[in-house]
Amino acid sequence: MTVADKTVLITGASSGIGEATARLLAQRGAKVVLGARRKDRLDKIVDDIVQAGGQAASMALDVTDRQANEDFVAFAKKQFGGVDVVFLNAGLMPNSPLSALHVDEWDRTIDVNLKGALYGIAAALPEFIGQRHGQFIATSSVAGLKAYPGGAVYGATKWGLRDLMEVLRMESAQEGTHIRTSTIYPAAIRTELLDTITDKQTLADMNKTYDSYQIDPERVAQVVAFAIDQPEDTNVSEFTVGPTIQPW
Fold this sequence. Notes:
Number of strands: 7
Helix content: 40-55%
Strand content: 15-25%
Strand order of the largest sheet: 3-2-1-4-5-6-7
Largest sheet: 7 strands, parallel
Radius of gyration: 17 Å
Distance between the termini: 34 Å
Shape: globular
Number of helices: 7
C-alpha cells in the first residue's frame, strides 16, 4: 500500500513535525486524523487540508490519558473506517541539568514522551493485530542515540522509545502480525520544542544551537511519507534526520 487512501493518526499534530506531516500526507491522498491538546490549532489545520481537497479530522488529545488514546483510535475508525498508521509524535523537551532538580518536569517528560507513546501503542495494537497489518512511526531524537549534558531525562525517554519500537518490531515479526515500525531521530528542527525549557542557561544554549542550524519540519514529514510508502513486506526501522551543517 502507498500513502494514498491510508488512514494515518498523528499525535502532537498542532504544530511542527506533526502539522507538517499531516499536511504532506493529506496532499498525497492519505486520510489524516490529528490529535493534540490545542483543538483550535487542529481545527485550522483541518480546514486548510479540506479546503485544499484533502481528507482530515481532528480530536483534542492528551497522550498522557490512556482512555483518551483509545478514544482517539475509535474516533479515527468512526471517521474513516479503520486505522493503518499511527505516528507517535507528541513530545516535550524541558531540558536542564540534573542538579537543578526540576523533578516535576522530569515526571511530565516521562509521561508525555514515553508513557504517551506506550498508551498510543496500546490503543492501536489490538486493531493492527486483528487486521494483520499496521504501522507505528515514532519521533525519537538524536538524544536517543547519544548523550547530551542537560538532556538526561529527555534523552532517557528517547533512548527508551528506541528500545520500545525495536522490540515491537521484533515481536511482531515473531508473532506474524505484519506490523511495521519506524523510529525517526531528528536533530535541530524548527518546532516549538524549545518552548518547554524553563532553565534559563539551557534555553540560551539551545536557542543558540537551533538558530545556527535548524531546518524546516517538512524535512521530517518527507521521511515519514517515505516510511509509509514502502511495500508492506518491507520495514525501514530507523532514520536520523538533521541539518547537513550540524555536527550533532
